[in-house]
Amino acid sequence: MKPCELVTKEQTAAYSLNHAVPSRGGDHFQDCLWEGLASSQFKLMWLRFYYDTNWLARIYRNEAEPYYHDWVPLTIAGRPAARQGEPIRNEQPTKTEGCRVAVALSDSQAVDVSIVSADSSCDRAAR
């Protein structure tokens, strides 16, 4: 699964996001980044696909990346998931808020979505 192919051109147009920029990924993930255009409500959207690891179990055991904490369990489309309990806030240079949501696809696959916007974005990240 390639993260840059998970968001359609119609979806990027609807949210005023630029073209997908894939990153080099890591040992157990591939990811993709979209930046918001000037007219966009989003400043940034980032999507990471985890494979060969139980990312959601690592979150529940508090073994996830240290700068993401305070995860709250939830269910999205019938699948186990988690989101950060509090939005990430950045006061400089412009006031933005971010949210991260992870959804298990199987015992060894998960998708992780982060959104940074000018307003609270946790509800959008869960969609």
Short recap of the structure:
This protein has helices at 9-14, 55-60, 122-126, and strands spanning 21-22, 29-35, 42-51, 71-76, 79-84, 88-90, 96-104, 109-117. It is mainly beta and 127 residues long.
How many extended strands? 8
Poorly predicted ranges: none
Distance from first to last alpha carbon: 19 Å
- Class by helix and strand content? mainly beta
The portion of residues assigned to helices is 10-25%
- The number of helices is 3
Give the number of domains: 1
Mean pLDDT: 79
Question: What top-tier CATH class fits best?
Answer: Alpha Beta
* N-to-C SSE string, H for helix and E for strand: HEEEHEEEEEH
Strand content: 35-45%
Largest sheet: 8 strands, antiparallel
What oligomerization state is this entry in?
single chain
Level-2 CATH architecture? 3-Layer(aba) Sandwich
Which fold does the CATH topology refer to? Protein Transport Mog1p, Chain A
Shape: globular
- What is Rg? 14 Å
Element layout with pairings:
Elements: H1 9-14, E1 21-22, E2 29-35, E3 42-51, H2 55-60, E4 71-76, E5 79-84, E6 88-90, E7 96-104, E8 109-117, H3 122-126
Antiparallel strand pairs: 1-2, 2-3, 3-8, 4-5, 5-7, 6-7, 7-8
Short key terms for the protein model shown above:
127 residues, mainly beta, Protein Transport Mog1p, Chain A, eight-stranded antiparallel β-sheet, 3 helices, 8 strands, 41% strand, globular
